[in-house]
Amino acid sequence: MMQETAMPNPNSEILIDAVQLSYGSHHVLNGLSLNVAGGEVYALLGGNGAGKSTTLSALLGFVRADAGRVAVGGIDPARDPDGARRRIAYLPENVALYEHLSAVENADYLLALSGTPRARAAIVEALAAAGLQERAYDQRLAGFSKGMRQKVAIAVALLREVPVLLLDEPTSGLDPRATSDFNTLLHAVRDRGTAVLMVTHDLLSAADVADRIGFLEGGRIVEEVTAEGPARFDVRGLRDRFAGRALAA
């Protein structure tokens, strides 16, 4: 069902309200508004240069909006980036992990860095919940596929118990089986009450996992679609409607 972009909800974990942001004379975000509640997956789709990466950068406190409001759990990332980032797990398109360490060692080290150390038993339990096979727990990541690396990163996010998960092109480079596994895992993360914002070109994956899909063009949401009924989304209709907006399904 097509609808107007949702009104800002001050209780949302992720809140972007009428944000304007420019790099010099180049306007990147032009009145962008979106909100994501706990237990919800919001997929932000758009072509190259639409403003997807800048949106994530604003939430992480790497760039400051010229106007409007950005908040993560009520915290302004530009004013208190550390406070906002403590509420966020961020998975970039290419997850940065330590090649010479095993899956368990990576999780142990990253959790210690974040100030949330966990026992090996808890790490192993989270790796299993993320879908990593037991034989891979003590293998070095040098031989891991992108999908396996993502599972390690998701396990760390689960153990940190943060309320917000940001994903940048999470299914890029994944084969269909790995994409399906990732989407199943994302459903589980959402069901734990996490607010998930994923930016993507992958309409099919977005339709499978998202509760809402927002289409970003020229730095603003031009259309927002909400999942409805067993079929969730009319994927063919979405592809036809947005074929001219540089979206790759």
TrEMBL record:
Gene3D superfamilies from the entry? P-loop containing nucleotide triphosphate hydrolases
GO molecular function list: ATP binding; ATP hydrolysis activity
Which SMART domains does this UniProt record tie to the protein?
AAA (SM00382)
- Entry coiled-coil feature ranges: none
Report the PROSITE patterns cross-referenced here: ABC_TRANSPORTER_1, ABC_TRANSPORTER_2
What keywords were assigned to this record?
ATP-binding, Nucleotide-binding, Transport
Q: What are the boundaries of the signal sequence?
A: none
Q: Which InterPro entries match?
A: AAA+_ATPase (IPR003593), ABC_transporter-like_ATP-bd (IPR003439), ABC_transporter-like_CS (IPR017871), ABC_Transporter_VariousFunc (IPR051782), P-loop_NTPase (IPR027417)
Q: Where is the ABC transporter domain?
A: 14-243
UniProt-recorded name of the protein: ABC-2 type transport system ATP-binding protein
